[in-house]
Design goal:
six-stranded antiparallel β-sheet, Glutamine Phosphoribosylpyrophosphate, subunit 1, domain 1, 3 domains, about 40% helix, about 600 residues, 23 helices
C-alpha cells in the first residue's frame, strides 16, 4: 500500500524532478516509510512507500525485463505467477510487483488480466508502450489530469491540485450527487479537471495522451479469457456453474473464502481485523482464526448513545469463541466533533458516508500495533445483503420496488435536481444484460457505483490517513466468480439476504448470530448534531459551494425542523469539505468557521 504520482509527457525531454516531488509530498501519509523519485525521457515517477512485502528489496520504481513499474496496492498471487511461468530464477527481489514485469515481457498487456489483488499502477514497458491500470473493483484509487505538456496521475486528487492550482471545485451536478447519494457518480473531469480512472481500466498512454482504453474482466460477469498457464487460472475467466445443492454451495464457499483470506494475509508486517460483529467481518474472522496459530488482533467500534445500534457484545462473543485478541474502541460525541474536520480533509474525493468517522478512529488505534487490517467490505454487494435487494425480488403488489437508492433531499432546488438526475446515472451504471434478474442488476449497479465510490473510497482514505493498509477478502476475483454464479435463491431466501453466507457461518461459528437481522454500521451523528443544530444552521447555509444547489433558507430549515435530521450530516460534511478543499482552510480553521471547534 503506497502512494504514486507521475508525469507522462508529450516531449521526450528528460522530465524534472521538482514537479513530482511536489505531488508526492502531498501523499506522504500513504507512504510513511520513504519516497523514491525517478526521471527519464518523457516521464517522471514518484513512489511513497508503506512497506508490506519484501521490506528491504521492494522499493519502487521497480525495474526488470527492461520495464519499470510504480504501484499502489498488493498483487496477492505473485508467488503463483512466478511458479507457473518459471520466473523464480529471474527475480531479484521478493516484491509482489516484480513478477508482473517479467510476465509483461512474455505476453504484454494480457498479463494484467492474470493479476489477483488490489492495485493501481503505472507500467513503462520495454516495448515502448506505457500503461495506467486499476483493479477491477476499484479497491485502490487512481486519478489523472491533463496538462499542456502531458498527463499527470496520482493516488489522490490533492497531489494533482498541488501541481497546478487553483483550488478544486465540484460541478453543481456532482454536488447534488454527493448530497443525495452520499457519493459522486461522475468520474470527471471534475474537481478542477481531475478525473477518476474507472475500476478495471487499462489505459495505454502515448505522447502524453490516452490513446487506447480497454478493461480487465468484469468481476460481475464471466467473459472469455486468453490461453491460460499450466496451473494459474485468472478468476472470472470463464463461466462457473452454480452449485447444484445447498451442501455443495456451502462447501464451495468455504473453499473460495479460505483461499482468499489465505492470500490476503500475505504480509511481512503485523496484520489484524476490523470486526463489526456482523456476518461479513465475522466470516473473515472465522477464516483468520482457522489459518493463524496465534490469536488474531481484532478491533470493534461502539457508540455509547441511547438506542444507537451497537454490535460490541456480538463481536465480543465471536472473539471469545474464536480466541481473538479483541480490542474495544469507543466513539463518542467528543470524538465526532474532533474527527469530522479531519475526515473531511482526508476525503479529497468526497463521500458523506458517516461510517468514515468511526473507521478513521479505528485506523488510528489499530495503527499502533498493525500495518495491515482485513475487513468485510463487499460481502453485501456480492451475496445480496441489503434489504432493498429483497424488495427488488417481490412483486409490486407485495411491496416490491426497484433496488435503487431513495432520494430524500428537500433542500435541493427542484430544477437543479431534475437537471442532475442522480438516479438515472445510477440506473445507467447498472444496465443489465438481456435476461438478468432484477437482483443481479442491482448488485452490478452497486458494485459499479456505491462500492468503489463510497465504501472503498472510505476505507482507503480513512486508513491511509494513518499509514494503515486495508484489505478486502470478499473482493477477490475468485470469491466474486463464485458469488455471481449463484442463483437468486442461493443469495436471498425468505427474509434473509446473504443466505448461503449465513448458512455457512451458522455451521462454521455457531456462536455468531448468523440469522440475526442486519443492523448496519449506523453512526448516531444526528444525536450529536441536535444540540448544535440551530447554531450550525446559518453557518452551513452560508457555504458558497451550495450556490446553484440550494438556497440558504432551505438549508437552514433542515437544521430547524427535526424532520430534516437525516440531511444534517451530509450538509455539515459538505460545508467542512468545501472550506478545506475549495477555500484552502485547514481542518481546524474549517471547524472554527462552522463553530464546532
Amino acid at each position: 500500500m503506497c502512494g504514486v504520482a507521475g508525469v507522462l509527457a508529450r516531449s521526450r525531454a528528460v522530465q524534472g524532478a521538482a514537479r513530482v516531488e511536489r505531488m508526492i509530498a502531498a501523499l506522504g501519509h500513504r507512504g510513511p516509510d520513504g519516497v523514491r523519485v525517478e526521471t527519464r525521457a518523457g516521464a517522471a515517477l514518484a513512489h511513497a512507500r508503506l512497506s508490506i512485502i519484501d521490506l528491504d528489496g521492494g522499493w519502487q520504481p521497480l525495474h526488470a525485463a527492461g520495464s519499470t513499474v510504480i504501484g499502489n496496492g498488493e498483487i496477492y498471487n505473485y508467488r503463483e505467477l512466478a511458479e507457473d511461468f518459471g520466473l523464480a530464477p529471474k527475480l531479484a527481489t521478493g516484491s509482489d510487483f516484480e513478477p508482473l514485469l517479467h510476465l509483461y515481457a512474455l505476453e504484454g498487456e494480457r498479463a494484467f488480466a492474470r493479476l489477483r489483488g488490489m492495485f493501481a499502477f503505472c507500467l513503462l514497458g520495454a516495448d515502448g508502450r506505457n500503461w495506467l491500470v486499476r483493479d477491477a473493483f476499484g479497491i485502490k484509487p487512481l486519478y489523472i489530469k491533463r496538462a499542456k505538456d502531458g498527463l499527470l496521475f496520482a493516488s489522490e486528487p490533492q497531489a494533482l491540485w498541488s501541481d497546478t492550482p487553483p483550488a478544486p471545485r465540484l460541478s453543481v451536478n456532482s454536488c447534488i450527487e454527493l448530497l443525495t447519494l452520499n457519493y459522486v457518480l461522475n468520474d470527471g473531469p471534475d474537481l478542477d479537471g481531475v478525473s477518476r480512472v474507472p475500476p478495471g481500466a487499462v489505459i495505454q498512454i502515448g505522447d502524453g495522451e490516452a490513446i487506447a482504453e480497454t478493461s480487465l474482466p468484469d468481476p460481475t460477469q464471466s467473459p472469455p479469457a486468453p490461453a491460460l498457464a499450466r496451473r494459474i487460472k485468472p478468476p472470472m475467466s470463464d463461466a462457473t456453474p452454480s452449485p447444484s445443492s445447498d451442501r455443495a454451495a456451502v462447501a464451495a464457499l468455504d473453499a473460495v473464502l479460505e483461499e482468499s483470506v489465505r492470500l490476503h494475509q500475505r504480509s511481512d508486517v503485523p496484520y489484524g481485523l476490523f470486526l463489526s460483529g456482523g456476518v461479513d467481518s465475522t466470516a473473515i474472522a472465522v477464516m483468520m482464526a482457522r489459518l493463524n496459530a496465534r490469536p488474531v488482533k481484532a478491533y470493534t467500534c461502539g457508540f455509547d448513545v441511547g438506542d444507537a445500534p451497537d454490535e460490541r457484545a456480538a463481536a465480543e462473543r465471536v472473539a471469545r469463541a474464536l480466541d481473538l485478541d479483541w480490542r474495544e474502541v469507543r466513539f463518542g460525541e467528543e470524538d465526532f466533533w474532533r474527527t469530522a474536520p479531519l475526515v473531511a480533509a482526508a476525503l479529497d474525493d468526497p463521500t458523506c458516508d458517516y461510517a468514515c468517522l468511526p473507521t478513521f478512529k479505528l485506523a488510528q488505534i489499530a495503527r499502533r500495533d498493525l500495518t495491515v487490517v482485513l475487513s468485510g467490505e463487499g460481502g453485501d454487494e456480492l451475496f445480496a445483503g441489503y434489504g432493498r435487494y429483497r424488495r427488488a425480488l417481490r412483486p409490486r403488489w407485495l411491496g416490491g420496488r426497484p433496488a435503487e437508492p431513495q432520494i430524500n433531499a428537500p433542500f435541493i432546488d427542484p430544477a437543479a435536481l431534475a437537471g442532475a438526475r442522480p438516479l438515472a446515472a445510477w440506473r445507467e451504471a447498472g444496465t443489465l444484460a438481456s435476461g438478468s434478474s432484477p437482483l443481479l442488476g442491482a448488485q452490478r449497479a452497486d458494485v459499479r457505483t456505491w462500492l468503489s465510490r463510497d465504501l472503498l473510497l472510505k476505507l482507503d482514505r480513512c486508513l491511509m490517513a494513518h499509514g494503515l493498509e486495508g484489505r478486502t477478502p470478499f473482493l477477490d476475483l475468485g470469491v466474486a466468480r463464485f458469488a455471481f454464479s449463484l442463483s437468486d435463491r442461493m443469495k436471498v431466501r425468505g427474509s434473509h439476504g446473504k443466505w448461503i453466507l449465513r448458512r455457512w457461518l451458522s455451521e462454521a461459528c455457531p456462536t455468531a448470530d448468523a440469522w440475526g437481522r442486519k443492523k448496519g454500521f449506523t453512526t448516531p451523528v444526528s444525536d450529536w448534531i441536535d444540540a448544535r443544530a440551530k447554531a450550525l444552521a446559518p453557518r452551513v447555509a452560508a457555504c458558497r459551494g451550495l450556490v446553484g444547489v440550494s438556497d440558504a433558507a432551505a438549508v437552514e430549515a433542515v437544521f430547524h425542523d427535526d424532520r430534516g435530521r437525516a440531511q444534517r450530516w451530509p450538509l455539515l460534511f459538505f460545508a467542512l469539505w468545501w472550506r478545506i478543499h475549495a477555500e484552502g482552510a485547514s481542518p481546524q480553521e474549517a471547524a472554527q468557521a462552522l463553530g464546532i471547534s
